[in-house]
Design goal:
Elements lengths: L3 H6 L26 E5 L6 E6 L6 H12 L8 E6 L2 H5 L22 H4 L6 H14 L3 E8 L6 E3 L4 H10 L4 E4 L23 E9 L3 H17 L21 E10 L5 E3 L8 E2 L5 E5 L2 E4 L5 E4 L11 E9 L11
Helix pairs in contact: 2-7
């Protein structure tokens, strides 16, 4: 049986095209929680947050939040909060082992359930999540910035609810929107509390900007964060126009994730070199094997979403399968 180190050694090595910002200057904040900074306009309006570093090696979000903090934002209304999440994992990043510091003890983007946050379990990531939880509880609109293991076009993960799809359509970027219910092994921040409650006005999006270390991913993170702040009405987009580098897509494509593909063994292998958004025309096509088990497409025109073996292990989602949705939401919907 292959080890994770052997599997990673056989995967593409991506160049580090960006500088990792020194975020230590942002440790002390005005919120009482290290690395979380808030700017209040003094005028009634929503509390809007941009979060980076749910995973320690996802540097595009850190670059975007660092850049926004340097602009010394002055909201038009409401409050803007900018933060770094798993700072300890980011501190430990090693360019010679780039996959190792996604987290320290456990995936911080799988702990956002009441049972985990309020339970007796302990980990570095749980302690940090509990620390920032009171701030997250006060947020009306959240953008959680992530990036991907493999080179792939950026994705907006809008969750399974109609309100998330509408929010993604209003934002308008990126071109591919993933309608998904998250992961079977734990709840994401994007789905926490009111964000994942159909009856709550709160809303959240999770953007996957591209491959972790690419210059394009950095640009997507900055562009998306600025459009998000402008869409919620808390900033004037003209004050951030120098960060808008991505073309506005003519049309967004919605992909509905119907099922995760979860590995059962360390002998999981893809049938092809999938990187993401590959369209498999025929149902029953073998796309992977897991030991003696063949994984096949469940329907025609099946789209592969976020395939990667870099964190392979029993119980780990290694890709998701999606259907193409053939409708579009109106981009002119107001969020309040």
């Amino acid at each position: 049986m292959k080890t994770l180190e052997q599997i990673r050694a056989g995967l593409p090595a991506y160049p580090i095209e960006v500088m990792f910002p020194d975020i230590s200057r942002w440790q002390h904040s005005n919120t009482g929680v290290d690395y979380i900074h808030s700017f209040d306009s003094g005028i009634a309006g929503p509390h809007v947050m941009v979060m980076a570093l749910s995973h320690g090696n996802e540097v595009s979000g850190a670059i975007a939040v660092d850049a926004l903090l340097r602009t010394k934002l002055k909201p038009l209304k409401g409050r803007v909060t900018l933060g770094f999440s798993n700072v300890e994992a980011y501190r430990r990043f090693d360019k010679n082992n780039v996959d190792a510091t996604r987290f320290i003890d456990e995936d911080m983007n799988r702990v956002w359930s009441e049972s985990r946050l309020g339970g007796k379990d302990d980990s570095l990531e749980l302690r940090r999540a509990r620390e920032i939880r009171p701030i997250i509880d006060s947020v009306d609109y959240l953008l959680d910035i992530h990036s991907m293991h493999e080179e792939s076009p950026p994705l907006m993960m809008c969750g399974p609810l109609d309100k998330g799809m509408r929010f993604a359509a209003q934002l308008g970027v990126p071109a591919h929107v993933i309608v998904d219910a998250g992961h079977p092994n734990g709840k994401r921040m994007r789905d926490y509390g009111g964000f994942g409650d159909i009856s709550s006005p709160k809303n959240a999006l999770l953007v996957e900007t591209g491959q972790h270390f690419s210059a394009r991913s950095r640009d997507v993170a900055l562009d998306t964060a600025c459009r998000f702040l402008a869409t919620t009405g808390v900033v004037d987009i003209m004050n951030l126009s120098h960060f808008l580098t991505q073309a506005y897509p003519v049309k967004q494509h919605l992909l509905h994730v119907t099922q995760p593909v979860v590995a059962h063994t360390m002998n999981f292998e893809f049938a092809k070199d999938f990187r993401g958004l590959e369209l498999i025309e025929q149902a029953g096509t073998v796309i992977a094997t897991d030991g003696d088990l063949e994984i096949v497409t469940p329907y025609d025109h099946c789209v592969v979403v976020q395939p990667s073996l870099r964190h392979l292990g029993p119980g780990v989602t290694v890709m998701r399968l999606a259907k193409i949705l053939d409708f579009q939401f109106d981009r002119d919907i107001k969020t309040s």
